[in-house]
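Standup notes
- HV: blocked on the assembly model, inputs below
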Amino acid sequence: MGGKRRKPPAGRSSPTIRDVARRAGVSPGTVSNVLIGVRGVRSDSRLSVMKAAEALGYKSNHMASSLRRGHTRTIGVVVPDLSNEFFSGLVMHWEAQAAKAGYEILVVSSGDNPDIESRRIQSLIARRVDGLLIAAARDDFGAAPGFPVTLPPAVLVDRASGHKRFDTVSSDNVAAGYEGTSHLIKLGHRDIACLTSDDSHIHLRDRVQGYRKALKENGFAGRERLVIGGRSVDACRVAIEREFRLPTRPTAIFATTFFSTLGAIKAIHALNIALPKDISLVAFEHSEWMTVFQPYLTAVAQRRDELAANSWSVLIDRIASPHATFRRLKIPITLSIRESAQPVSD
Amino acid sequence: MGGKRRKPPAGRSSPTIRDVARRAGVSPGTVSNVLIGVRGVRSDSRLSVMKAAEALGYKSNHMASSLRRGHTRTIGVVVPDLSNEFFSGLVMHWEAQAAKAGYEILVVSSGDNPDIESRRIQSLIARRVDGLLIAAARDDFGAAPGFPVTLPPAVLVDRASGHKRFDTVSSDNVAAGYEGTSHLIKLGHRDIACLTSDDSHIHLRDRVQGYRKALKENGFAGRERLVIGGRSVDACRVAIEREFRLPTRPTAIFATTFFSTLGAIKAIHALNIALPKDISLVAFEHSEWMTVFQPYLTAVAQRRDELAANSWSVLIDRIASPHATFRRLKIPITLSIRESAQPVSD
DNA sequence: CGCCCGTGGTAAAACGATTTACGAACTAGC
DNA sequence: GCTAGTTCGTAAATCGTTTTACCACGGGCG
């Protein structure tokens, strides 16, 4: 190699701090001090550095700087499914939080598959994220054999609430079940079907537990009608259709997930029952389309903004003090009373 | 400093390639050769390296390696709004493509604001992404004064189709307008309102152009009924309500965006008109909730998977050959004939 | 005048991986 | 037996930034 500094042939690579230093007639260290500002720099050199950086269109190389500094100011976000409005909502809130705090987020989705989740987390670790916000695929997150032993600071959000080895932030799902059911009881309903997908997750079990609690408190402990709908919209539809072939039909349905809400509506249409005249429904979650749906759905909804804000600050605290005791936050839910649940008719 | 290598007090930092090398009794270079595999390594040293890496839980530091290699194997993705199902759908497809090709994606959202978009792109550049997939906030993407002069290879997706200085991949929006309108014409409709938000974007103008083309081809050039609804659901509702106060009412509505679809439905409800008996509707986009909506909506939908797959491969080609001529891909759309558009009654 | 201190600049050492250049050991061919 | 060629290992350079260590220069003070 002949020259003292050979540029890649295309000459397209971005300018480095050394280029800026050369142009400004100072050393790279001085340029760094101007741009980061940890030490004083005389105002004339400061000015010439700024000019040079501007002229060259210099952009600090994030790889290099975080390699040297030992942190990336990046938070990894792991969600099951971005096309689920609940999670994309959380992600947008987190993105806003991050922007405010000078962080960036790196979003991956796991498809609710623990293996994929584990692989994705591996690659977030390789990227040396400073922290992790995780809506876990399973409640026993981290228990799988091949799982990385040491994780960066992490907060479990929405799922796996109360996990032994992590901070957790999730909705008060017992309250969600309780309030949705209580509302129906107050309207005079006594035969309330509780539609859930299965009992694989603590948040689902909690919602059912809230349903039971409301029944019990009102003296209807024997009137439990748990409908296990599975994880798809159509499985839920089938389960509700079956429930309606029983001798005594429920007069109300409490759907404990977003997908089961869709399944319940499908079943109601298929059975040709009038909503809300012949059947009451308490839905789960809120979504834009509900504003065009008739009747306007009474629903229990999670507070995405509070979930996101709280989990963010718990994570930041955790990063600051890695050895503090774990926190378990429960965020209240919102019951929006609209039109799909009506007083029992007969 | 007394020792030869001082560890950070907490002792928590991840093991480096040097730690692995020491434990395996070889040099860092050999470890690298085992892990990346560009050169042969004797099988006994290979084995001991693998063992050591396993035991230490070694994860290659992505910062360091991409600093040295000069590429990050990361693609930056810029979308206006992740909570829009269309974009989150694209993102999920891209994520799958990336995983297959050994890439990762870094998603940011712009809120459809060119300033935020520009800042987000700056930070993607600082992170030295190898390429960019952009659903631009404006058709004149890159024209703003403070905009980075040199961008990594980039493909414009969905928006700004036909841009002079970039590859573009988008739906055939003229066809979208044409097919939606033609379907209504074939059903006998002659008074078709075309509901759009405004003419700020080429994709919106193209859809309207398709509407006009269908009208013209059928000899109804004079019967144009363009309704400018603005960018919110409620503005669209109001616009349609106003249109229905005119002496001759339209018998059909063609909604050219997802949000205007919602607005149109709201208006139809508010006006107490029966859908599809008294009014036909062709909606835009498909979404899960439509399966529980009555009537099932006839709709023009974009092919997210093809959009994602094609833009991905155009980007990969662009990265491979930066000086090839620009490509302008148009992806066909799908018209799903369902129940909300019926033959005109009278 | 001599000393100390604050200011601001530079050179060089990190950070952790990859890759180049070089050399040792061994094999093969004549 | 000697040379050329292959294989595989190591040391050192490198990527671009931050940070440490050191030095030069002035000003204030005794």
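- HV (later): unblocked. Residues 16-18, 28-29, 31-33, 36, 38-39, 60-69 of chain B lie near DNA strand C (CB under 10 Å from a C1'). Chain B touches chain A through 51 residues (CB under 8 Å).
- Next: hand off to the docking folks.
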